Amino acid sequence: MVNRKELDPDKSPSARFGQLLRTLRDARGWTQDELAERMGCSGTHISAVETGRRPPTLHFARSADRVFGTGERFERLSRAVRYTALLEGFPEYVAHEARAAEIRLYEVGVVPGLLQTPEYAATLEADAVRREAITPEQADERVELVVRRQAALARIPSPLIFAVLDESCIRRPMGDPAIMEAQLDRLLAFAERPNTVLQVAPFSMGARRPFSLPITVLTMPDRSLMSYAESSHRGHLERESTAVLPMLMAYHQLQAEALSQAASVAMIEQLRKGTP
Q: Could you give the strand order of the β-sheet that contains 235-238, starting from the edge strand earlier in sequence?
């Protein structure tokens, strides 16, 4: 085809979205105008999305899923395009998190996103802006995602959430005292829910910690397992049970060594009152 732009799906989330759109359209023998008619837009719009010149909106992605019968595949890809401030791999993880039956997470240094107040999240991202690691717009994007992730878990039946926080998470000041006070209150409220377990891994555990970095293990509705971990540059979603099962076993060991929920709540309440 004359002037047909070649796409590199590894170049960006937009390129991956555009390549999939073009591949499925070609497989059906449709022109861009014919696909546009089915999706309720213009052929020019289809061309712009396919070549990465225009990012797909959520509405566009859902229309593509409807036309091609791809479930939520395009919608998930569109999230990767939208959340450009996130580590590679994280948008895909978030899509699975929203459907998980059980979530087991371990965090070091900061309160995990699922438990953050918007003010705590905004303070965390404001520091990233100060360091010029992200733009103010990307900071807003990240805070918005925190709120969106928490809302996605407010469903019936509720997922079981097991959260083990390194003691550094609750002792590291974040913003002014009012922000940290509200964050500790959020943790205490989280512990009271019927579908949650909150534990603190105290400094005294020392080398008995099975993890040195944050880790999340998801149990999906069909009981399949996947794990998510991050390096400084990208996130990695692992679906192979042979790799995830040892992480799940290590997580159980972590819970056994960590403080009970009652003792963890007592520690947080002491901090809340200003007691060392």
A: 196-201, 160-166, 102-107, 215-219, 225-230, 235-238
